[in-house]
């Protein structure tokens, strides 16, 4: 949900881009297997409008079918990551009955959180405020890099709303129940630097370095063996295994799968030859 946001500019991804519907989502596919998704409605602080939601649905579907994909980076145009749900739409919801609203909200949540269904790692480059559903989008990613002065907050109850977009699951999963309670019950906002200290983001850096930092991490991910990386993401999904025995059972199956790949042979050869490996995903 929206809150007071900064209008300071921040860097946008370079390279060729293709627009989603209405140009509200930019999709930049790079030769190294990294795709950058830029929420592109800076005049509205990248609010998650119907048009942007439709563009997101199309983009994620396309990425799911992209066999060359290695990593996805998500960021916002202008001074915000995203201000979350469209308050103008929310103001009109009183005319709808609860069952219809439930169906509409479920579709909204599932569309945006479909990023978690991608088999490759995802990284949020939080270049500015991430608010409400926008914060949840960042939490749904595997890694998060934030501007030190970015504001991260979930002001649902201040708007008379119960938290949505899996906030009551994502916040505890990422940073633990104490911080989830603090942010959801008091509406406390964290700066990027505070979020790093509390474990909500991986690193906080000056605003002008956020996208570069996220892309550097994406390049490291993209350079790793794709099969091993995707299986590792599965192992860590949903907070990881419930106990050590479950982890051992999974690893005793997943590790032999990677042992049967040509990429493992290439990785060992590259280490022996002291050169970068050339992984193909085979």
Task: Describe the model.
With 282 residues, this protein is of the alpha/beta class. The chain has two domains: 18-222, Alpha-Beta Complex (2-enoyl-CoA Hydratase, Chain A, domain 1), CATH 3.90.226.10; 226-273. It is 42% helix and 14% strand. The protein contains eleven helices and ten strands. The chain has helices at 50-64, 87-90, 98-113, 133-139, 167-175, 177-186, 192-197, 210-222, 226-236, 244-259, 262-273, and strands spanning 18-19, 25-29, 34-39, 71-76, 122-126, 130-131, 143-147, 151-153, 190-191, 203-205. The strands form two sheets. It has a seven-stranded mixed beta sheet with strand order 1-2-3-4-5-7-10, sandwiched between helices. It has a three-stranded mixed beta sheet with strand order 6-8-9. Helix 1 links the parallel strand 3 and strand 4. The termini are far apart. Residues 1-21 have low confidence and may be disordered.
């Amino acid at each position: 949900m929206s809150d007071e946001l900064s209008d300071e500019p921040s860097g946008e991804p370079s390279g060729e881009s293709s627009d989603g519907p209405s140009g509200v989502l930019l999709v930049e596919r790079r030769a190294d297997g990294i795709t950058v998704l830029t929420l592109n409605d800076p005049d509205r602080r990248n609010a998650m409008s119907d048009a942007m939601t439709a563009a997101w649905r199309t983009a994620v579907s396309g990425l799911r079918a992209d066999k060359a994909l290695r990593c996805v980076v998500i960021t916002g145009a202008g001074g915000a990551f995203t201000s979350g749900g469209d308050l103008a739409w929310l103001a009109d919801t009183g005319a709808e009955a609860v069952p219809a609203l439930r169906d509409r909200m479920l579709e909204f949540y599932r569309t945006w959180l479909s990023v978690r269904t991608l088999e490759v790692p995802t990284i949020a480059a939080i270049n500015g405020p991430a608010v409400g559903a926008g914060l949840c989008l960042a939490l749904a990613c595997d890694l998060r890099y934030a501007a030190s002065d970015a504001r991260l907050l979930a002001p649902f109850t201040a708007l008379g709303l119960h938290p949505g977009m899996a906030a009551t699951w994502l916040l505890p999963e990422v940073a633990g129940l104490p911080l989830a309670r603090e942010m959801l019950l008091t509406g406390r906002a964290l700066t990027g630097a505070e979020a790093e200290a509390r474990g909500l983001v991986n690193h906080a850096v000056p605003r002008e370095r956020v996208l570069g930092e996220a892309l550097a991490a994406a390049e490291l991910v993209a350079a790793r063996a794709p099969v091993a990386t995707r299986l590792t993401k599965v192992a860590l999904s949903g907070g990881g295994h419930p106990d050590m025995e479950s982890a051992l059972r999974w690893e005793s199956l997943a590790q032999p799968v990677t042992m049967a790949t040509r990429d493992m042979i290439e990785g060992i050869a590259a280490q022996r030859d002291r050169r970068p490996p050339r992984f193909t995903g085979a």
